[in-house]
# Entry
Amino acid sequence: MNAVPITFYAKAEHAQGLQDSFGRKLNYLRISVTDRCNMRCDYCRPSADAYQAEPRSHILSFEEITRIVRVAASLGVNKVRITGGEPLVRKDLSTLIAQIAAIDGITDLAMTSNATYLAKYAQALKDAGLSRINISLDTLNPLRFKKLTGSELQPVLDGIQAASDAGLFPLKLNTVLMKGINENEVPSLIDFATEIGATIRFIELMPMKQGMDWDKHYIGIDEILQRDDVQARVDISPMQTGNTAARYLPLKDGRGEVGFIMPMSERFCEGCNRLRLTSDGGLRSCLPADKQMNIRDVIRAGGSDADIRGVFLRSALIKPEIGIYEFDGKADKRSMIHIGG
Ligand code: SAM
# Structure
């Protein structure tokens, strides 16, 4: 994109921080550091053969990412999550973590990972300044895990243990619910999380560009909460309403809570404070809306920090009031692995 027209926006005063046209304050940046992953989850990407990773030269360097975060922080962004693809397939990730952790104004630096390589890196990430981590875990059955992800379960379990040992708290586990695949594992996953002192969150399957048939595998949280083996563990009476992405319900044994993320059955757009930076520099203000602007192009064309700030301001302005998932599967680059989950 052309860096010139955004100068107008860059001149605006940002005393209020970054705000969209609907008065929502945007203080949370999710950064995909790579569109590569060691796993092959069908819900996250089209079949392995169909998906082509971006050439490495298209991917933002650590210096570019750090510069973008510094500008974002100057606009009031204080919360950053590193994601991907799988962030830990990116070499020397701790270096980037340390660079971001050192930026004035960043008060919360988290990461989402599949944990395969976490046993090796958890302590280094913690030492570099990572505050906490969310780990994807869709099944505890090794065969099902292999079928779903193409990878082994044991390194993931070792990674979860390493995150706990390194003190990356609170430790959260994320499970995408899939009808006919892992829907019956909700009780055992809750028990597992409780035993290791983690909080598990169940996520409704979103119809992204993916290798899985959404119609066949979608199941709503409502249906899960009706089940006896779930109600034996979870007190479903106090489900709050609100605008946060996750709703939490207490465990009946008093040992914590369980989260439910319902992008399909209950939108939480009203309280959305997020922007996403794709690994190739796209700034995206709404997950399902395909509109994005490219900051990498601005930087590589010699753009100033004011120009980068302008992209943030424009991206905030085009953030839709409500994010709508289309079911036609036509959008070209809408797999989660490409956008960054
Ligand atoms: N590789 C890391 C991981 O596995 O956590 C980070 C990237 S992954 C894309 C981030 C999150 O997106 C994961 O929790 C994953 O389960 C979720 N995700 C991907 N595709 C999804 C879909 N179609 N519906 C719901 N969640 C999805």
User: Anything to note?
Assistant: The mean pLDDT is 90. The longest strand covers residues 171-177. The chain has one domain: 6-339.
